[in-house]
Amino acid sequence: MNLRKTAVIVTGASRGLGAALAEQLGRAGARLVLVARDREALESVAERIRRHGGEAHPLVADVASPDAAAQIAGSTGALVGPPEVVIHNAGSLGPVPLVPLADTSDAGFEEALATNLLGPFRLTRALVGAMALRGRGTVVLVSSDAARTPYPGWGAYGVSKAALEHLGRIWLAELSGTGVRFLTVDPGEMDTRMHRQAVPEADPSALTSPGQAAVRVLELLQAAP
Q1: Which strands, in side-by-side order, build the sheet including 55-60?
Q2: Is the dihedral of CA 136, 215, 48, 203 positive or negative?
Q3: Does 143 participate in catalysis according to the annotation?
Q4: What's the pLDDT score for residue 224?
Q5: pLDDT digits over 180-190, tens only?
Q6: Considering 143, 151, 205, 209, which one is annotated as catalytic?
Q7: Which domain holds residue 94?
Q8: I need a surface site. Which of 2, 71, 79, 120 has the fewest CB within 10 A?
Q9: Which residue of the set 14, 144, 160, 161 is catalytic?
Q10: Phi/psi of residue 7, nearest 5 degrees
Q11: Contact 55, 119 (CB under 8 A)
Q12: What is the CATH number of the domain that holds 78?
């Protein structure tokens, strides 16, 4: 896939994997809309991309909000044209410090579901109809091995990521033959703020850097037809 001049949405783009992905995509020539809640951090990422000749538009939004999908879809069309790629990277652990399911509050569980599952569902729903009409589009779901391995304490996060992966499989089955593709990627354990919140005792030197993970995701996108 040639990403040059391709309109791409990256959620959770203000730090970690999202920021690293945005910078890699900017170097590849994509036209970027970067979504996150932290305006200052988001604008900093966009400015770094612009300094290297890329195109990046910061868009402050919370993907967990029911109104965010329409805002993101509409703003993206106005800024860079119809999006051809959306990368659902924004994520929430739910309750922190991590707790067993029996100690997880409704609010904590709902927070993980709203960001990790409902947000991607709503934004995908807002975009795939137009993608199918154009006969092309790529939806990238950033998942985790917690979607498949039942780690104690990771209940809200793991359940939301497992559901996200199956959501992608259903979308793919329903949109078969339309030219819309779904890619699920597990970047592995990374040295990010989220990982430090979840596992504060982890050795950063044993973790993958967001930059390294971003390179792998970019290669996957570029290898796709």
Answers
A1: 55-60, 31-36, 7-11, 85-88, 137-142, 180-185
A2: positive
A3: yes
A4: 79
A5: 999 999 999 99
A6: 143
A7: 7-220
A8: 2
A9: 161
A10: -80, 120
A11: no
A12: 3.40.50.720
Residue 205's pLDDT is 85
Is 161 catalytic? The answer is yes
pTM: 0.96
Q: Could you tell me if 69 and 125 are in contact, meaning their C-beta atoms sit under 8 angstroms apart?
A: yes
Q: What is the DSSP string of 122-165?
A: HHHHHHHHHHHHHT-EEEEEE--GGGTS--TT-HHHHHHHHHHH
Residues 6+ apart with CB under 8 A from 131: 82, 83, 84, 137, 178, 179, 180
Q: What is the DSSP letter of 117?
A: I
Is 170 a domain residue?
yes
pLDDT in tens, the chain (225 residues): 999 999 999 999 999 999 999 999 999 999 999 999 999 999 999 999 999 999 999 999 999 999 999 999 999 999 999 999 999 999 999 989 999 999 999 999 999 999 999 999 999 999 999 999 999 999 999 999 999 999 999 999 999 999 999 999 999 999 999 999 999 999 999 989 898 998 998 898 888 899 999 999 999 999 877
Identify the active-site residue in 14, 92, 157, 160. Answer: 157
Where are the alpha helices (H) located in the chain, listed in sequence order? 16-27, 39-51, 68-80, 106-113, 119-134, 155-174, 193-198, 210-223
> In this structure, is residue 68 part of a structural domain?
yes
In a domain, 225, yes or no: no
Number of folded domains in the chain? 1
Cα–Cα distance for residue pair 8/109, rounded to 1 Å: 29
Asked whether residue 2 is assigned to any structural domain, the reply reads no
